[in-house]
Design brief:
The protein contains 12 helices and 13 strands. By secondary structure, it is α/β, with parallel strands linked by helices. Bound molecules: nicotinamide-adenine-dinucleotide.
């Protein structure tokens, strides 16, 4: 009942992007999908092993800020762009803000330019609730909350969002922005809270918790996020922003304790460490608009999502070990270097 599409997905070797590639390939087997990823430390071809060689799937190693590398892809005709590619780790942005400006702002602007020149029918920018800054004990981020980013990461994402808005307003580019809360699930790189804690707990290593651990995040299971992007891609109104959140507010400490409990490990593994500078206290999303307009509903509570996630990491210890050891880089060299 749908017409087939040729999609350009960027950052598809990362955590959310690879989940999205799997989700789309199984839901729309007739769609053509090109995945552009620079394969930074966060990009892992292992995440895509199941789709490799599929006739409707192509991988291209390129930086989204490299216009010359992307032009032939756009020349081949792209119906829609879904931009996941980004430097995504707040702690790294504090050390190297310049990398974040390059990937997140210059990269997005390059994709916007190409989408405009080659008249893509839809451009989806995957953004974050972190652009809104931090909340006190009360209230939720709506799509009208002013942008007030506090880290170089969130500032670079906010900058990208403003360019997307400007390309819609100035050139009529059919662009949409999604802003979602913290994702968790399979294929997440173990520098982020949940996989890091699972990994350390499995190895009986201390679990480092920033400050008092009472920072609140609104956890969203990655598959529910993929469903939201699918809806926005096909039905989202251009020029709009859609917030996506799981209504699962939990403190970091609660998350860590849940993981320890699930794995049968003692809370004595918890170590409180010096808080991250500028650490946002609370994020919480009002996702009413996407629910009302597009009929999106998340299907995972935090409790069952975290169970599935832990089970996935237990079943994929080899993946985890490879990621940690960097062995997947060698894998990449032999798989892709000569293409
Ligand atoms: P990730 O770090 O796991 O993956 C990012 C991917 O982008 C990697 O594969 C990396 O190789 C690639 N990449 C980085 N710079 C690139 C460049 N210049 N050109 C091409 N590829 C490049 O990140 P993620 O957690 O999957 O996040 C994906 C997107 O979703 C990001 O835009 C992020 O801002 C956004 N987001 C993430 C979360 C979350 O909780 N993880 C929440 C809200 C929004």
């Amino acid at each position: 009942e749908h017409t087939t599409m040729k999609l350009l997905v960027t950052g598809g070797a990362g955590f959310i992007g690879s989940n999205f590639v799997h989700y789309m390939m199984s839901r729309y087997p007739d769609y053509e999908l090109i995945n552009v990823d620079a394969l930074t430390y966060a990009g892992n071809p292992e995440n895509l092993r199941q789709v490799e060689g599929h006739p409707n799937y192509t991988f291209v190693k390129a930086d989204i800020a490299d216009q010359a590398a992307l032009t032939p892809l756009f020349e081949s005709g792209i119906d829609a762009v879904i931009n996941f590619a980004a430097e995504s780790h707040v702690d790294r942005s504090i050390l190297q803000p310049g990398l974040f400006v390059h990937a997140n702002i210059v990269g997005t602007q390059t994709l916007l330019d190409l989408s405009k020149t080659y008249q893509a029918k839809k451009y989806v920018q995957v953004s974050t609730d972190e652009v809104y800054g931090t909340l006190g004990a009360e209230g939720l981020f709506t799509e009208n909350t002013p942008l007030a980013p506090n880290s170089p990461y969130s500032a670079s994402k906010a900058g990208a969002d403003l360019l997307v808005r400007a390309y819609y307003e100035t050139y009529g580019l059919p662009a949409v922005i999604t802003r979602c809360s913290n994702n968790y699930g399979p294929y997440q790189f173990p520098e982020k809270l949940i996989p890091l804690m699972i990994l350390n707990a499995l190895q009986d290593k201390p679990l480092p918790v920033y400050g008092d651990g009472l920072q609140i995040r609104d956890w969203l299971y990655v598959e529910d996020h993929c469903k939201a992007i699918d809806l926005v891609l096909h039905q989202g109104r251009v020029g709009e922003v859609y917030n996506v959140g799981g209504s699962n507010e939990r403190t970091n400490l609660h998350v860590v304790k849940t993981i320890l409990q699930e794995l049968g490990k003692p809370e004595s593994l918890i170590r409180h460490v010096k808080d991250r500078p500028g650490h946002d206290r609370r994020y919480a999303i009002d996702a009413d608009k996407i629910k009302r307009e597009l009929g999106w509903t998340p299907s995972h509570s935090f409790e069952n999502g975290i169970k599935s996630t832990i089970e996935w990491y237990l079943r994929n210890e080899e993946w985890l070990e490879q990621v940690v050891s960097g062995a997947y880089r060698n894998y990449y060299d032999t798989q892709y270097a000569k293409r």
